[in-house]
Specification:
Elements lengths: L7 H13 L4 H8 L3 H17 L1
Helix pairs in contact: 1-2, 1-3, 2-3
């Protein structure tokens, strides 16, 4: 079975979706292998884009 291709934007959207479902930032960042600073940047950028719509 071939590996699924993983695109950065897909991972970011998966990360944000799980935050919106109520998961905690720190454990989720550990799972995704990113720092909390990066996690908050991703989430804040998402909120800015949604707010502008």
């Amino acid at each position: 079975m071939p590996w699924k291709e993983c695109k950065p934007m897909d991972e970011k959207l998966r990360f944000v979706a799980r935050l919106l479902e109520g998961e905690q930032m720190a454990p989720l960042c550990r799972e995704f292998g990113i720092s909390r600073v990066t996690g908050y940047k991703i989430f804040n950028r998402y909120k800015e884009v949604v707010w502008m719509l």
